[in-house]
UniProtKB/TrEMBL annotation, chain A:
Keywords: Sigma factor, Transcription, Transcription regulation. Belongs to the sigma-70 factor family. ECF subfamily. InterPro entries: DUF6596 (IPR046531), RNA_pol_sigma-70_dom (IPR014284), RNA_pol_sigma70_r2 (IPR007627), RNA_pol_sigma70_r4_t2 (IPR013249), RNA_pol_sigma_r2 (IPR013325), RNA_pol_sigma_r3/r4-like (IPR013324), WH-like_DNA-bd_sf (IPR036388). Residues 178-278 form the DUF6596 domain. Signal peptide: none annotated. Residues 16-75 form the RNA polymerase sigma-70 region domain. Gene3D superfamilies: 1.10.1740.10, Winged helix-like DNA-binding domain superfamily/Winged helix DNA-binding domain. The lineage of its organism: Bacteria, Bacillati, Actinomycetota, Actinomycetes, Micromonosporales. Residues 109-160 form the RNA polymerase sigma factor 70 region 4 type domain. One of its GO terms (molecular function) is DNA binding. GO terms for biological process: DNA-templated transcription initiation. It comes from Dactylosporangium siamense. The gene is rpoE_48. It holds the Pfam family DUF6596. This is RNA polymerase subunit sigma-24. NCBIfam families: sigma70-ECF.
Automatic annotation (TrEMBL), chain B:
This is Transcription initiation protein. Residues 18-112 form the YCII-related domain. The lineage of its organism: Bacteria, Bacillati, Actinomycetota, Actinomycetes, Micromonosporales. InterPro entries: Dimeric_a/b-barrel, YCII. It comes from Dactylosporangium siamense. Belongs to the YciI family.
Length: 407, 115
């Protein structure tokens, strides 16, 4: 097994182990340190000795031993006796049941997404503890530096411990207030995996899978709550089209050229059913997740790109922009308008939006469609002057060469 | 039991002034309602009465006092409550009952308790 594969196994198991260890130890920092030390041991041992038959058991027991070591060091430093209870729990070698881990993961979700933490801190904590991403990877997602991310995480752990942010799932009457924050974090996790700003692959499979799993967990616990159902629907509908987004050689395939037979019909059907249930369960006007899921559902329903109901998609984007305006939604709306009302209408909308690498790429596409190839070349060249994933960059470079032929 | 200092930030008013009587009564009601979880409290005179003390260099250096600071911002520190609560959720629930929470803001800070 390669070092990378070992690291991947550890990353997947880490969140489960951490979630239960935080409850046992009662301290995020100590639990994280213990899991980290267990990970270091695994990374040193496994590439040489091979991955043990039950890596989860190995990591769980090792992390508990490391936690005992850390607690003993603490108690020697403070000159006080450690209360016996948690030491006995940590000395156990049996694994917690899936049901226990399930609850602990939810506790961890609600603690990471506690309203007394700032939204970027919530995302950073979730990426660190639930997805096992490194501070450098999180910095990439949050568009900040590794040092700033480290500082943010340290402050968050300090606050959780000192201010005693409780490690529990909120009571039912508080859930409606607490859920939007949790859903925002899950959606960010998915976005981080699905559309990373830079890096080797267009899609980070495990962050997406982790986000879907968390969305499943949340929806499973609260099947009658509309927001988790909508988030899960959105993730499934997006995930359903993922196999067609990249070619066999890892190249970007744009929506108009995707082989729709590669879309997952089962995921689409489930996503649409969840969306309908979510809309049915909510009495308020549609929220951002329901609208984004509805847009994804429109795309998923269309038999072909030309068969897409663009006026309906424009209508949904209009609603989305009134509920939750964002640069990404503005760009997507401009593309939809170009399809529904013509390229010039799309370009006119774009002119009123703030430029970004993605903005230049969309503009290049619309200019090319209008036959304005020289301007398209200039726009696409500008789009390459900024962060993009490697496949996306290759796609734009290829497209640039095509456009130059047409000038 | 953990303790939290709830610092109230409100308009920089003179609580003795007759026009503050109704609001002061609201604070008293809060204190009575939550007597079980309050360990200490104080209402402060306006910032106009404040003095900042600094010692130059090190201990024993020249004592420098300055008048103020007058509140330049809309909200000033006008009082505090020492709350005892099981966790931050409980502390926030109590803090949310302090009239300053809707007339201004309440900053909740965990108190270091010797272990």
């Amino acid at each position: 097994m390669t070092v990378e594969a070992v690291a991947e196994t550890i990353r997947v198991e880490g969140a489960r182990i951490l979630a239960t260890l935080i409850r046992t130890v009662g301290d995020v920092q100590i639990a994280e340190d213990a899991v980290q030390e267990a990970v270091v041991s695994a990374l040193a041992a496994w590439p040489v000795s091979g991955v043990p038959p039950q890596p989860r058991a190995w990591l769980t027991v090792t992390a508990r031993r490391k936690a005992i070591d850390i607690l003993r060091r603490e108690q020697a430093r403070r000159g006080k006796e450690e209360e016996g209870g948690r030491m006995i729990d940590l000395a156990r070698s049996d694994l917690p049941s899936d049901a226990v881990v399930h609850d602990d993961l939810l506790r961890l979700i609600f603690t990471c997404c506690h309203p007394t933490l700032s939204p970027p801190t919530q995302v950073a904590l979730a990426l660190r503890t639930l997805c096992g991403l490194s501070p450098a990877q999180i910095a990439g997602v949050l568009l900040t530096t590794e040092a700033a991310t480290e500082k943010r995480l340290t402050r968050a752990r300090q606050k959780i411990a000192a201010a005693r942010i409780p490690y529990r799932v909120p009571p039912p009457d508080e859930l409606p207030d607490r859920l939007p924050a949790v859903c925002a974090v899950i959606h960010s996790l998915y976005t981080a995996g699905h559309a990373p700003v830079g890096g080797g692959s267009a899609v980070d499979v495990d962050a997406c899978a982790e986000a879907v799993r968390l969305a499943e967990l949340l929806h499973g616990l609260l099947p009658d709550q509309p927001t988790p159902a909508a988030v899960l629907a959105l993730l499934l509908l997006t995930e359903a089209r993922r196999p067609a987004r990249l070619s066999a050689t890892g190249e970007v395939v744009t929506l108009d050229r995707q082989d729709r037979s590669h879309w997952s019909g089962a995921a689409i059907a489930r996503g649409i059913a969840l969306l309908n249930a979510s809309l049915h369960a909510s009495s308020r006007r549609a929220d951002a997740y329901q609208l984004q899921a509805a847009i994804a559902a429109e795309h998923a329903r269309a038999a072909s790109y030309d068969g897409t109901d663009w006026p309906e998609i424009v209508r949904l984007y209009d609603l989305l922009m009134s509920v939750a305006p964002s640069p990404a939604a503005g760009l997507a709306r401009a593309v939809a308008v170009a399809e529904a009302a013509g390229t010039d209408a799309g370009l006119a909308l774009l002119a009123g939006l703030p430029p970004s690498p993605r903005w230049h790429a969309v503009r290049a596409d619309l200019l090319a469609r209008a036959g304005r190839y020289a301007e398209a070349v200039a726009a696409l060249t500008a789009s390459l002057d900024g962060p993009a994933t490697d496949p996306e960059r290759r796609h734009r470079t290829r497209r640039l060469a095509e456009l130059r032929e047409l000038v | 039991m953990p303790q939290y200092l709830a610092l109230t930030y409100t308009a920089d008013v003179d609580w003795w002034a007759p026009e503050q009587a109704a609001e002061l009564a609201e604070y008293r009601r809060f204190a009575v309602d939550h007597a079980g979880s309050l360990r200490a409290s104080a209402v402060l005179h306006p910032t106009a009465t404040a003095t900042v003390v600094r010692v130059e260099g090190a201990r024993g250096g020249r004592v420098v006092t300055t008048d103020g600071p007058y509140a330049e911002t809309k909200e000033a520190l006008t009082g505090y409550y020492l709350i005892e609560a099981a966790d931050l959720d409980e502390a926030v629930a109590v803090a949310a009952e302090i009239p300053a929470a809707w007339g201004g803001a309440v900053e909740v800070r965990p108190v270091i308790v010797a272990k």
